[in-house]
Predict the structure.
Amino acid sequence: MCGIVGYLGKRKAYPVLINGLKRLEYRGYDSAGVAMINDQGQLNVYKTKGKVSDLEAYASDKDLTGTVGIAHTRWATHGEPNSVNAHPHFSASGNLAIIHNGIIENYAVLKKQLMEKGVEFKSNTDTEVLIQLIEYIQTSKHTDLLTAVRMALHTVIGAYAIAVLDRNNPDQIIAARKSSPLVVGIGEDEFFLGSDASPIIEYTKKVIYLDDKDIAIIRRGEDVKIVDFYNEELKHDVTEVALDLAQIEKGGYPHFMLKEINEQPDCLMDCMSGRVNVDVNNVVLSAVIDHRQRLVDARRFIIVACGTSWHAGLIGKQLIEDICHVPCEVEYASEFRYRNPVINSTDVVIAISQSGETADTLAAVELAKQKGAFIYGICNAIGSSIPRATHTGSYIHVGPEIGVASTKAFTGQVTVLTMLALALGKERGTIDQQKYVNLLHELHDIPEKMKTLLQQCTDNIHEIAKIFTYARNFLYLGRGYNYPVALEGALKLKEISYIHAEGYPAAEMKHGPIALIDEEMPVVVVATKNVLYEKVLSNIQEIKARHARVIALVNEGDETIKRMADAVIELPQTQECLEPLLATIPLQLMAYFIAVCKGKDVDQPRNLAKSVTVE
């Protein structure tokens, strides 16, 4: 949520800041702004509701000089999205400016205290409270900016990544983080700030990932200095970002989402590279090797995640229980963190997050650690907070995902969960060798089957989308491993087309949802030929008896359902537990094409943020 960019160096700051904001648009936002100290030492702030392009238009005739600045895209929490509530925010004197990602939970108390001391506020945001507090401390206690920031952060409760400019010190930016990501880029006589590495990589690949309660002092002509809240200096390694500029550009596709859907075969090959070895019939995960006994001895697995990652977790639960014969629970991280879960020292908690910064999942990790559980992280973003907070884990290695609606991260997460279940099942001796080999080889072949599926089904799904764009409601049904696929398909449609959709286990249709079915209700059914095929076939007959239109996902050559359904999408044959990796592709495409037909903003759907770093 929200995007932070900063620059201090020898270039003109404005082009760097605007370009950085564009790189961060995928995170979701509703207003944007920049603050720069110009060549005459004036602090200029320009901000507006809308897109970065609206900010560019607004600032086109303004003073854009200066070699230091900060910029922000805001996703509204406190106060409606407008130019007043947009960041950056001024202090009362106009000397200080701040950008902020996160939430100051005790802002109302602090605001009341400051107002009683005569401080006036212009916005409805929690962020303005923080910059007014910093300046009040600076002036009343006669401190420098760093000391004022440290003292203010001792006072506030909540999550934040901040960057502060001082008109009286144009050669400095103060930045800090707690529970919200912030990266410092190191160039040649220049420095960059970003919510992640994407606004930085075209200038430098050398970065410092700030940890919680780090404060970075960035000064012209000096090395970056990092201190804690007590001004004790901290040591941080400079790491090199394994990210290429081409990965965060569209590459000829009209939208990032379509690009990322089509990248999935190659992404899963990268995910399995060095891990799935068909020559020696083995799955190798370093985390399982390094922590074998702890994982093998686990009495229970608990998966915590949100949104799409939670759907991947539902598939992981079935894989772990089927292959490893260990009980596995799946919890919404947002619920898990606010109750008193029974967690034992023999439990393994698997935390799944694409960004590695999901606030609820990170809090669930900390809670489980406090209760003595062993934590296994499954993330995409290297160097993010969850991998640093867990005992071990596996990256999914699918590359940056820019589209807000997750696609390749979902299949990457399911692939890692499959590899984890296979590796653990073999170590525990709970999977037959022949079944192990068969699954391993079939998993290895999934990327090629994905390529074939994308080639064969894309045009068909585009035509189906044109027919069903009219719909106001959709029902998605699946059973077994394909029930989470139905949930994920419905979520994708909701996220980007704004059509109401629900996913259900097909057997539950008669327990309520059947009341909704009529000729106006399209029903998507995942009906592959597995052990539950006949049951799902009966569900389709019940749907057709009520005159609904059926879109069926079937295996190649299935003539029975083809005669019944209004539209059919054929999937290559695979092992039942691997069907989600193929079945989810057409549902991603269908959501995409329906949203395009409706003229929606596919990559940046309304009200959504890519990385949910606040509760």
